[in-house]
Amino acid sequence: MKQLLLVFCFSSLLFSGCKSANEKKAPEEKMSAKFTAIVQKETVLDSIPSGSGLVFYGEHAFIITDDSPYFFRLSRRFDQGQKFPISNTTGFTDFRIPKALKPDYESALIGEIAGKKCLVAFGSGSKSPERDSLLVVALDNLQNPKTYSLKPLYELIKTTAKLTNADMNVEASALAGEYLYLFNRGHNVLVQLNWRETIAFITEKPTGQNPQMKTYRLQLPNIQGVVPGLSGACQLGNENKLLFTASVENTQNWIADGEILGSFIGILNLDKLETEPVQAVALLTDSKGKAVIEKVESIEYAGTETDGTIRAFALTDDDKGGSKILEIRLRF
Q1: Contacts of 189 (CB under 8 A, 6+ apart)
Q2: Which Pfam families does the UniProt record give (predicted)?
Q3: How many structural domains does the chain have?
Q4: What does each C-alpha distance from 84 to 69, 144, 217 come to in angstroms?
Q5: pLDDT digits 0-9 by tens, 207-248
């Protein structure tokens, strides 16, 4: 499959310029673009550990975590919560599953499967077989979650994107139109798949037909020389664009935790994936412009105001079991 190096160029963040793979200088208007991501409010999530995926549906917010034996449904004010057991973690009753055994669900979305709206969560794939499962929960039957193996799909992704086992770490997922987008932290690989073909490949008997797939490698700006890793994504309203997040951890590999240095939020233009994919990107800050030292794991679109300001909510994980919701305003 065709792979493409996509280069993000930002003058206002960490360096005065950048060059693409063919050494061409970025356009001046792109270099001077102004985009901010400012935290307005934060909410601590009591009794929800290690938050990793946030999605809205109707009046509810659904949260999945990477090491809890439950998924959670809250109001969109993030209160009045309920928890529901995950079928492949029924042997665990503690607040958190030990790291060596956790299913590591790192991303979530709402998608249609067999005519029903479902909460869908992807295991990271960073350890097999423990982290190779897909969680599917029909929203009209939250008490009956199902899981499926992702190993065949992840093997295809590794082959197509030329990733090793150590590189595999799916941290984000999003749907836009007919396509599923998976964001792999290892080498910051974006995977584009046909949604219906992919779900059939995972949940039905093998037909010999692999899902359509394209992969792209994204080059991101750094903090103190540390390259961020893709961590969250969602569709930007009804547009053919995605909001994405990338967190910066001072670690020696794609899996181990490290000192958190901050997070970026950006907009990906899906109509220009092979030419000019990045519309904007910003370091997450407070109202005074100071970097917010949080590891953002997920992002969810909440609306656009009349002046163009984008409202979003981000889910964070402090690597110690603590989770927060950040209310964010994105402005040009």
Answers
A1: 157, 161, 163, 167, 183, 215, 216, 217, 218
A2: DUF6929
A3: 1
A4: 8, 9, 36
A5: 668 999 999 988 788 888 898 999 999 999 999 999 999 999
Instruction: Return the structure tokens found at 22.
Output: 């063919």
Single out the residue of 317, 297, 241 nearest to residue 122, CA to CA. 297
Q: Are 184 and 171 in contact (CB under 8 A)?
A: yes
How buried is 222 (Cβ within 10 angstroms: 0-12 exposed, 13-18 middle, 19+ buried)?
middle
Question: What does the pLDDT read at residue 11?
Answer: 34
Look-up of token digits 């305003």? 329
Please report, to the nearest 10 degrees, the dihedral formed by the alpha carbons of residues 247, 250, 255, 257 taken in order. -90
Residues 6+ apart with CB under 8 A from 204: none
Q: Domain span at residue 176?
A: 5-14+22-331
Per-residue model confidence (pLDDT) at position 63: 98
- Residue 153, domain CATH: 2.120.10
Distance CA 165, CA 186 (A): 10
**Nearest-angstrom CA–CA distance, 110 and 162:** 29
CB 262 within 8 A of CB 283: yes
User: What secondary structure does DSSP assign to 54-65, as a single string?
Assistant: EEEETTEEEEEE
Percent pLDDT > 70 in the chain is: 86
* 306, 294 contact by CB (below 8 A): no
Q: Quick one: tokens of 104?
A: 């590591």
Given a cut of 70, the residues of the chain with pLDDT beneath it are: 1-33, 88-91, 93, 205-208, 252, 254-255
**Which pLDDT does position 143 carry in this prediction?**
95
SS3 of residue 149 by DSSP? strand
Angle between helices 151-161 and 195-203 (to 10 degrees): 130
